[in-house]
Amino acid sequence: MRVRPGRPRPTLPAAAAAVAIAGRGLGLLSWAAALLRRSKPLHPVGVVAGAVLTVDPAPVASGSPLLDRPGGRRCLVRASYAVGTGPEHTDIEGFALRVLPVDADDARSDLLFASTGVGRWTRHLLVPRRPGRHGAQTTLLPVRAAGRPLVVRLDPVDRLTQPWPARYVLSWSHGQGTWHRFATLAVAWDGVDDAPNRFDPVANPLPGTTQYAAVARLREPAYRSARLARPSAGRLPRA
Q1: In angstroms, rounded to a whole number, what is the distance separating the alpha carbons of residues 10 and 6?
Q2: Which of 1, 9, 71, 95 is most deeply buried (CB count within 10 A of its CB)?
Q3: DSSP secondary structure string, 192-228?
């Protein structure tokens, strides 16, 4: 089938069906794990703290105003391990970042990071970390910003700080392109325990971005199943 120049390409039925099936499969696995664990299916135990994001934009624009405008923003963060065996054993690092609203007209924005590589393709692949080690994490799956795929990266300043680093550097890239540093994050971990918070980048996107349909189909069934199986585990507080 020919596609006229300037018009969006139609979604391939086979690809859409494959993504939908994968999303339903992840949803069923998430539902079963939540029931068996009596908690969140992944990242069941974590540490929550307040943080400050200081944006010093890159020379080029990402397409999201939050990443492209200088200033400081209050945040809520949660650090955890995917399987729940860390830090004593090798596990996948996880880091959730919520940029809090500045006023009644603003909305919160959520980013979910997981330990990955940072190369052209490895930035989209999970990487387990050895005990006592921290490293780069990315948002793994892209969102659309200014018509281009956007991936965000989080790097600890000190990779050996235990249990979690207090300072991070954030960068973004378009697809498999160059990383552009745009912010620092300072976290106050002292005396903070876990709290029932759910972070959802589909429901709370970065301003100026939209989810790719395939990514939303892949992610949302797992989020919905986990909430239905264990609704009391991680209700969002009112902003």
Answers
A1: 12
A2: 95
A3: ---------TTTSPPTTEEE-HHHHHHHHHHHHHHHH
Residues 160-187: b if buried by 16+ CB within 10 A, e if exposed: eeeebbbebebbbbbeeeebbebbbbeb
For residue 222, which amino acid is it?
A: A
Q: What is the pLDDT of residue 24?
A: 43
- ∠ Cα 206 221 138 (to 5°): 40
How far is Cα 227 from Cα 232, in angstroms, rounded to an integer?
8
**Whole-number Å distance between alpha carbons of 114 and 119:** 15
Instruction: Say if residue 18's pLDDT is above 50.
Output: no
Burial 88-118, CB ≥16 within 10 A → b, else e: eeebbbbbbbbbbeeeeeeebbbbbbbbbeb
Structure tokens at 74: 């209050």
Instruction: Say what the alpha-carbon torsion angle 211, 35, 97, 110 is, to the nearest 10 degrees.
Output: 30
- For 140-176, write each residue's pLDDT tens digit: 888 999 999 999 999 999 888 888 999 999 999 998 9
DSSP-H helix ranges across the chain: 13-37, 65-68, 213-229
Residue listed under structure tokens 């624009």: 61
| Residue at 35: amino acid letter | L
CATH number for the domain whose boundaries are 43-210: 2.40.180.10
Structure tokens at 31: 């539902």
Between the CA atoms of 170, 186, 43 and 135, what dihedral angle is there, to the nearest 10 degrees?
Answer: 50
What is the reported pLDDT for 81?
A: 86
Locate the domains of the chain by residue range. Answer: 43-210
Contact 23, 221 (CB under 8 A): yes
